Amino acid sequence: LNLAKAEPVVKVGVDTTFPPFEMQEHGKVVGFDVDLVNAIAKAEGFKVEWHTMDFQGLIPALQTGTIQMAVAGMTITPQRAQVVYFSKPYYHSGQSILVKKDSPIKDLADLKGKTAATKLGTTADIMLSKMKDIKVERFTNIDDAYNQLQNGGAQAVVFDNPVNINYAKTHKNVHTVGKLLTGEDYGIAVSKQDPRLLEKVNAGLEKILQNGTYLKLYRKYFGDDN
Ligand code: GLN
C-alpha cells in the first residue's frame, strides 16, 4: 500500500453479521464500525474500499494482502496479535448467554449437556470449545445461531453481549442471563505489511476520540444504555 499517494485507497475487510457494528442494509455495509472507520479515514486522508467476507476469512486475507485492514468487532487476543497488528482498543465488550425467557438456564454451569450455538472462529467459539460438556454448533452467520435457538436446536446462544442485546431488542421471547463471561476489547486489525497504516489508524482514532465524533457515533448506535 502506497501511503505517499495523495489519497490512498485502503481495502478494508468487514464481516457483516455483527449488528449493530456491521450489517447489510439495502445492499450497503453499515454500522458503528463502518462509521468509525470512515471517520478515521476522513481524519487521516485515505479512502476506504469495503470487502465483505466471513469472520474467519479476515485474518488470512490480511496475511495474504487481499485486504490491508479489517473491522469486525474483532477482539484483541495474543494469538491474533502474533499475525496481525491491532489498533488501540475502541470498544470494551464480553461474552453473554442468550436464552428463551422460559428457559431454566441461568449461567454457564446450566449449559452442561446442552447445545450452545455461536459463530465459527470467534472468541465465543474458542471459549466454548474448551468446555467439554457443552455441545457447540458453529455458524458463519450469527443469524443462523439465533434461528437455531428459536427453533429449539440449541438451548442458548453464547456470543458478544452487544450483539446478543441487539437481537433481544427485536425478539421479545429471549433475554441474556448471568454475568458477562469474559472481558474483551475490540481493535481494528491491520496487515503486518503496513506498519504506517497502523500509525494512521491510531492517530485517526485518537482524533475522533478527542473531537467528539466517537461519542456521537456511540450514542447513535448504543444510546446511553450499553
Ligand atoms: N468479538 C468476537 C471475536 O473477535 C466476534 C467478532 C465477530 O463475530 N465479528 O472473535
Number of domains: 2
Radius of gyration using CA atoms only: 18 Å
Q: What is the strand arrangement across the widest sheet?
A: 4-1-5-14-6
CATH topology of the largest domain: D-Maltodextrin-Binding Protein, domain 2
The CATH class assignment of the largest domain is Alpha Beta
| Low-pLDDT residue spans | none
- Small molecules in complex: glutamine
Task: Describe the secondary structure blueprint for this structure.
Elements: E1 9-14, E2 23-25, E3 28-30, H1 32-44, E4 47-52, H2 55-64, E5 69-71, H3 78-81, E6 85-86, E7 91-93, E8 95-100, E9 115-119, H4 123-129, E10 135-139, H5 142-150, E11 156-160, H6 161-170, E12 174-177, E13 184-186, E14 189-190, H7 195-210, H8 213-222
Parallel strand pairs: 1-4, 1-5, 9-10, 9-11
Antiparallel strand pairs: 2-3, 5-14, 6-14, 7-13, 8-11, 8-12
The chain binds glutamine.
Would you give an account of this structure?
There is one protein chain. The chain has 226 residues and is α/β, with parallel strands linked by helices. The chain folds into two domains: 121 residues, Periplasmic binding protein-like II (D-Maltodextrin-Binding Protein, domain 2, 3-Layer(aba) Sandwich); 83 residues, Periplasmic binding protein-like II (D-Maltodextrin-Binding Protein, domain 2). Helices cover 35% and strands 25% of the residues. The chain is built from eight helices and 14 strands. The strands form four sheets. The protein has a five-stranded mixed sheet, with helices on both faces. A five-stranded mixed sheet has the order 10-9-11-8-12, with helices on both faces. It has a two-stranded antiparallel sheet with strand order 2-3. Helix 1 crosses helix 7 and helix 1 runs antiparallel to helix 8. It starts with 8 loop residues before the first strand and ends with a helix. The mean pLDDT is 95. The site of glutamine (GLN) has 11 residues, from loops.
